[in-house]
User: Fold this.
Amino acid sequence: MAAAPWYLYVCGVNHKNTSLDLRQPLQIGREELADCQVAFSELPGVMESAIVSTCNRIEFCFVADRLNDPRDIVTDFYRRVRGLDVSAQRDRFYLMRDREAAEHVFRVAAGVDSMVVGETQILGQLKDAYSSACTVKTAGRILHRLFHQAFRVGKQVRTDTEMGKGACSVASAAVEYVKSRLEQFDRPDILFIGASQMIALSASSLSRLDVGEFYFANRTVDKADGLAGRFGRRGHSLDDLPYLLPMADIVISCTGAPAAVLSAETVANAVAQREARPLLAIDLAVPRDIEPPESPIENLETVDLDSIKAFVETNRQYREAAVPQAEMIIEQRLDEFFYWYTHAHQELANGMLDKSFEHIRRLELERVMKKLPIELRDELDHASRHLVQKLLQVRKRVNETEPE
Assistant:
């Protein structure tokens, strides 16, 4: 096949090759994603694009002409949009092209490339990134096909293998535990204590369920406000916990505080005010955020990190055993996508060549048409069109016989 006029790329960094400190300045928040999608799409050489930004990865999926270095495009993006010079970290950005790029996106969708194998959150994050790109019209024919095929991969892997069975991270395990208790409550109100990544992931997942009000409390109220704002709520200080706790049906806490932020007495008082309504308290912190009561309290269920981690470990073993099956599905879907991609590549390349030849034909004819008798003009126009079509057919046959 002749040299392609453009390629499909994935360029980025993730938890495998960079630290959190290095990734943090590069990350793109949900509120700025749409503007960044547009800014990236306007860079020279970029034809289609979508940005995936999570706590563990920042990846640029894009189609660009082969005249521009893709790492230079990403470097230029951060310089223009963030005022950041990332040239010193340029080589840390992994770069994949065409089949390798598509395979990477599929592995991400399947959960095989995640920090925790089989992690479920990433598929929703990929859908959010693609949806954002569609909204601002930066995704085109290639990325539409790529992402839809990736979503099929993710769904099939989680349906046909053990990869999707049970929770695989502390945050997802907490969410699964809440799901298992939802029948006890009528649209439960949930209190989140802390503003950590684990709390953010838990809140994001639970927001998709049939639940009631969300409350957010943190030592720093500004951080509580920042997280609460994503869900149309306002944040509270930890000083408000005695007031908030009786209103909540479920509490999820993960603050990183050096000592408990909820005393056993505070919890007992809250339960007493709830008139026999159950309270579920999930403590994900080390050291504990919620002081254990000296004796069991009626209508209070507490879950600690040890219980959650045991649940995660059991599921991790099942998920890792499912990786070979997942990779077979990925390979099959990759073959399907790349068969389509190769033909789409040729069609688009031939279309660009058609337009170029037609433009040249018109320019050359303009120079001689006025000098010819009227009766010869139509004949020359027809002959020149026929000649261009013959040349394009020859070029197509050459493309089909050239080696890769």
Notes: The radius of gyration is 28 Å. The chain has three domains: 6-161+325-345, 170-317, 358-401.
